What we know:
Layout: H1 4-13, H2 16-32, H3 42-57, H4 61-74, H5 79-92
Helix pairs in contact: 1-2, 2-3, 3-4, 4-5
Amino acid sequence: xxxxxxxxxxxxxxxxxxxxxxxxxxxxxxxxxxxxxxxxxxxxxxxxxxxxxxxxxxxxxxxxxxxxxxxxxxxxxxxxxxxxxxxxxxxxxxxxxxxxx
Length: 101
């Protein structure tokens, strides 16, 4: 069984790509638990938020936002909801003064 400490350890000790590869089985396991009804699982929400951060680091912003949305659905007050709000703010930012004339 995965713990929050193990998640942080995997992320700290591996590159983003390797960490994603090692975390995916835990995500799959938690999604399959309880007859596919994982809503409200805080650990799954944390895993999805961490996966989103790794995807953002790798440059896949669309997948990162999808992970944040899934995390926010699992735990609306968890880390994914805040990351989703921040990433949407970043993506919505537009300042025409910064464009080349």
